Amino acid sequence: MKQFCDVVVWEKPAITVSYRTGMTVFEEGLRDGRWVAHLLVPLAGLAVIGYTWWGLDVPAKVLGVVWMAAGTAYYLVLRFVLKREVTLGG
């Protein structure tokens, strides 16, 4: 159970930070024309996330999928039902 709690508390923020950092680097790479160099960083982040998910126990994977589905549902309600503009920066 300790590993399950560690995954929820510690790895979820790390995965979110890795994803957001990777997307920011990739978008900046598109603007300055060096998209090949900037593509490697998000792919490395994807590899780390994939490796992390591969090592998770089944309950942690289920919780992760449920959490992602809840976040997606929340986004869809904000965007299409309440007609609000949703941004990542806060």
Summarize the topology:
Blueprint: H1 2-32, H2 35-54, H3 58-81
Helix pairs in contact: 1-2, 1-3
Explain what this protein looks like in three dimensions.
With 90 residues, this protein is mainly alpha-helical. Helix content is 83%, strand content 0%. The chain has helices at 2-32, 35-54, 58-81. It starts with a helix and ends in a 9-residue tail after the last helix.
Keywords, please?
single chain; 90 residues; mainly alpha; 3 helices; flat; disordered N terminus
Order of helices and strands: HHH
Q: Determine the fraction of residues in helical runs and give it as a percent range.
A: over 70%
**Strand residues, percent:** under 5%
Distance between the termini: 33 Å
What about the largest sheet?
none
Please tell me how large the radius of gyration is: 16 Å
- Low-pLDDT runs of 5+ residues are 1-11
Count of helix runs? 3
The secondary-structure class comes to mainly alpha
Specify the overall morphology. flat
Average residue-wise pLDDT? 75
Number of strands: 0
Summary of the model, kept short:
The chain has 90 residues and is mostly helical. 83% of the residues lie in helices and 0% in strands.
